[in-house]
Every structure is written in C-alpha cells, then in structure tokens.
Amino acid sequence: MKKLLAALTCLAMLLALAVPVAMAGKPVADRTAPTTTASPLGGTFTSAVTVTLSVNEPATTYYTTDGTTPTTSSTVYSAPLTISTTKTLKYFSKDTAGNLETVKTQTYTIGAPPSTHATLTWTGYGMCSTSTCHSGRASAVHSSVHYQWKGDASEMTTGPSTQGKIDATDGSSSMNAYCVNIEGTWNPCAACHVGAGARPTSTLTPSNIDCLICHNDTVNAPYSRVRNATTGLFEPAAGLDMNLVVQKANIKPARKNCLGACHAKAGGGDGVKRGDLALATVTFSNPADDAHMATGGGNMACQSCHTFTSHRVIGRGSDLRPQDSSTDLNCSSTTCHPTKTTSTGHVNADVYHHVGRVACQSCHIKTYARGFQTEMDRDWSAPAVWNATLGRYEPEHVMAGNQVPKYAFWDGTSWGSNVGDAAVLDPATGAYKISRPNGAINGPVGTKLFPFKYKTSHQPMANGKLIALKVGTFFSTANYDQAVKDGMAYMGLPTTTPYTTVLTDEFQVLNHQVEPAGSVMGCAGCHENTTVNLKGIGYALKAPTSVVCIQCHREKTPGDYTRIHSHSLSKGFDCSWCHTFSRPERGLTMP
Amino acid sequence: MLHFATRLFLVIVLASALSAVPSASRAAASAGYAVEIADVGKSSDLAALLKERGYSTVIPPKNMWVADQQSNCAVWIGKNVPLEMLRAVLPEAMRFNPYLKFFYVVGDRGEKPPQAVENTIHVGGSIEAALEKKLNVIDQQEMLAQLGKAASLEELHRYLHEKNRPKPEQKPAS
Asked: Which residues form the GH29D-like beta-sandwich domain (chain A) (predicted)?
C-alpha cells in the first residue's frame, strides 16, 4: 500500500511539473488580424482596371462588388478582378487562427467623370442652385440643419419638436454656455452659415446658398469670401479666378472646408467650443493628436464618419438640439470597426465585457484639447477683456489644453435649456443646467459611458429664467448690466426685473482626437480610480459590505477588482446583487 | 575709459540721429502713442516704415479674426491719438492696404476702452466688427482730404462721428 501511495505521489508530482512545462511550450495565440491590400487602390480610371488583392499571411479573402458588406459567405477571392464599370469593392480576410480583418472599401470609377464643370463660367452664387444640374441638391441643402440652423429635435427630451440655434422666442432657440444665444444678432453668426450671408427663410433663395464654402477645391483652386462692406453679404474675395474655382469645385469637402470655415471656430474662436476640434485639426500630422484625422494617421475626411445622404449629415453632439439625420453614427456599425463589439474584437478579451456599456471614446480619448486650447469657463460678470482686432470687449474666459474628460452615461437623448425656459439647478454640480446627456448607470441597453467636455459659465438669471444677455451691447460697452437689461427686453421681461449672476454648465460629448490603439486608457484608468471615479458615476456598492456581503457569506473587505468580480465573471451573479444596476444583456442571474 | 574726442563724436552721432526723427512722431512715441498693425499683407513693411519715422509700432500675434487685407479693412482710432500722427500714419496704412474702408474713433458710441486703446491706432480691424457696429464705408480719398483739411482733432472726430451714424434699418425683401 505504501509503495502504491508513493508511486501515485510521484506520478502526481510529475504531472504537476509537466503541465506548466507543456503550457509554457504552447505557442502564443495569434490575435492579429490579417491585412489585405488592393492594387491599384480605388480611383478614377479611363478604362477597365484589373485589381489584385494580396494578404500578408495565409488567409482567405472575401469580397463583394455591389456595395454590400462582405461576410464569410461572400465570394472568395481567387484571382485578379477585372472591373469594367464603376463599382465599389469591399473586402476582408480571415486568417487561419480565425482573426477577422476590418472590411475595407475601394471605389473604382470607370470612364471620365460626367462633369461639365470644366467649362463653367462663374455667374454668381445662384448659378449652381438654379441650374438643372444642382437644383435638387439646393433644395436638400435648404431644408437641412446646416442651412436652417434648426430641425428635428426628436432626440431632445425637452422643448418643442423642432429646435435649433436660430433665434426665436417660441422656446425652440437653444442656449449655450458660450455666447448664450444668437438673440437677433444674425450677421456675425452668419460667418459660419452655408448661405451667402442672408438669414435663412422658409422659401429657397438660390443666391443665398454658397456651395463653394463646402465644395471648393482647397488645394487647386481655394475659395474665400469676404463681406460686402455695404450689404454685409458675402462675395468672393478679390483676386480669385472664380471661373477656375467653380471648375474645380466638383469635389467632396475636405477637412479644411468643414473645420477651416466653421466647425473649428465655434464659440467665437479657434478651438473655443468643441474641445476636440480646432484649426490645428486640419493639419495635424501626428496620429497621437488625432488618429483618425492626422495626415500621418487615418487622414480621414469628416464625412468618412459623418456620411451625407441628400445633404443631410449623420451625427449629433450631445449639446446640439436638432439632428439632421435619424441615422446614428456608431464606430462599430460602420465598415471601419465592425468586429470591435465581438468577443474577439480586442486583444484583451476582458474589453468585451465593457463594450456593451462603455463607448469606444471613453477608453480611446484619454484627454482632449491636445495641441490647442479650449474654453473651460466664461464669466460675463467679470471685468471684460479688450479684443484689439475687433475693437471690442469680450468676456473674461479661461482657456486650457490637455484636459481630462468628465464621464457620464448617455442614452443618445439630451436635455437642453432654451430661451424662455425655467432655469433648472443641478444639485450634483451646483450649477444651472444648459445641456445634459440623458442617461444613468441603470439605463436600458444602449446606454453607455461617454467622455465629455465640462464647460461652465457665469450668466444672468431673472424671474427664474436664464437671460440671453445682448452680447452686442457687452462687446461694445463692456457694460454687463446694460447687456443683461437689453437681453431681458429681448425676452419680453421688464428691464427693471432684478437679476443675479449664476453658475451654469453643460456637457459636450467628445468624439474626436481619438488616440492610436497603443495609447488607449488601460484598465487601471478606471479600476484603480485614477482617472475615472467609478464610485462617483454609480458603481459604488448598493449598501455597506456589512449588508451586501452577508447576503451570501460573512462580511469581507473587497479585494482587487478581478477577485471581487469573480461573483459575476465566474459565478454569473447579476450586478444588482451588489450594486444598484443590472446588466441583463450579459445573461447574468440572481443567486 | 573713452577718449574725450571719441565721446564727443558719439554724442554728436546720437544727437544727429535724434534730430533726424520728426519731432511730432518723437513726441507721439514718447507720449505713449502707438500703431498696432494686423498681420495681413505687408504689415511688417508698414511697421518698419512707421518705425523709421519714429512711431512705436507693434504687430500683435495672429488670431482667427486676422484673415486678409479685404477682411481686415477697418481702422480703430484711439480718441487721444494726435491729428498729426493720424496725418502721418493713415495715408501710409491706406497705401499698404487699399481695402481699408472703415475708420472709427473708439469710444464714439459711448464705449470706454482701456486707456492704452485711446492712445493707439489699430490698422486692420475686422470687417465683422465694423458691420456689427453698423459703420459706414468711407472712401479713402475722402478720408485723406478730410485729414488734410481738419483744423483740429475734434473736427476730425466730428466728421467720423457723422459719417458713421448708423443708417436706418432696411426691412428685408419679403
């Protein structure tokens, strides 16, 4: 018996020693997706083109040429493809380890583009809109949010069904924590309008659509416009060869069109409002500044993500009231990152447990305003600052770069304060709310944690309403009191109404300045509470450990994150057993 | 220790140099008057020219409102800037930027700018601000003529005040 026991012990020891050795010798799992290259890349060709797809490792390549997204059921690539008519080629490869490549797209346009632009002569802003070529597009632009500055507010849980920044006193005109509201000062705001300077109307005025502001060829025939000193309307800058400008204008907008003309300058200055967009975004070369848009990174145009259909763009900032399109913009629903929400989508498999409730941006945008500064606070009641170029006063404001986002749950809908609304104090921030992403940790599936720019302002309030002070009065006189009174008159309040200055704030979702994959926020960013205060956003225990732990066993001091979460990861207990929220989409159950 | 003759020579050179600067501009510079020039066109050439003539000049760092000569076509005139300085600076400013068309005395509408602004001519103010203030275009030739014939600074200010009187609002075409 002793001999038998000794033999078994020896066998067990041998096995114990052998297993780790065997495991150590096991090759590291291949988790790298293959890379497929098309040659030539898409473009315009005068005749049929033969396209070769090559992969950097043993893999099977699948493709389609009808614009649909290929799957592993699609045609398998076996020989060069001859494309003789204009087609969109989509392809991806799957390697022998099962890693899937992100679907890539190339468009091959065969034959000279059907353009008559080459012979155009500039006759004025109405020439495109009144022609048979683009009258339909002019109508589409006219009805868009880009033109009307208001639109479908179905993602707002406050205010009327149509809202926007255009001034109105019917509760539809949005407030913000920058210049508050445009309150009748159309002209200076028109600098960022796709019209030619006139205020948008309900009927289409072809001469007030400036196609060139978005469609000019910024490289070969750049266009710029200046104000007519008498009418205030825009006209082409002197010295431009406008015939050449319209001849070359047969292109889609580049970053310089969108950002250089308007979106980088929102809030009254470079980088002021958006926090993740600035004029520098046009020319960033280092992917660390913006992996998607930097010339050394993806070098992507805005509409690579913000796709347009009939001149309606997808994507809405959390603080914006109207949506131009009901189609949502989502990293993983595009052809760019379709696998990232799958269990094998990330190198670290634990990420899969997060993607249902944590937006890509939360980990991939660790900081914002990198490479420029953005406005963090504006105080209308403080002594004003003189702007020499504009010959006017401006409110004191705080600019800062390299900011760490605030994190909040967002279900895709928003709360907003419009002109005339009763002011609402947020006890959590101690400020009156200008805009908020709706959502909570216990929100329905689809609610995710997002990063936000947090912006404060010091604004007047009277009769329980935030006052859209007259910025024009403030700019010219620095007289805050008079600007408030003029604002009250605009809002229909007696100018003798007593007012106070209150703190206001808003959250603005961050989507740009995504960092390269190697710079992602690590697990410790949240799970040691170094960057994200998990408890502060709802992840605290629902009760003291003396209550929670004893549901199953004696009271314990929580150990590290992984150990304590073995309750859900291994045992499958639903989060609500210990927290105030549930995650039904993960198939967890109560003990 | 320098030789007496050397020191005498240096004093003479310095005195000659100072006497070469027009007395009005020297007085203007010493009184703290300055010319700010927006960084558009050949702003540095204009700055160098005015500096040569004894005026204190500065080209502030660019900002998003500094675009080009056509967009930066306003002149903000500090209310204390002497007539003689305006007579010297504005013709050169117009020569360097033929698009200058708005001329406005800062404070004319009751604003109270910082003290330094009242002693400064800003060449290249933004048309956006000019339109916001509802200023009127003043022909360069007319402005030059008025500069020549104004008997006093106050008379020039009165002229600019009248020229910039806002026109009645026009109703948009329906």
From this structure: 40-105
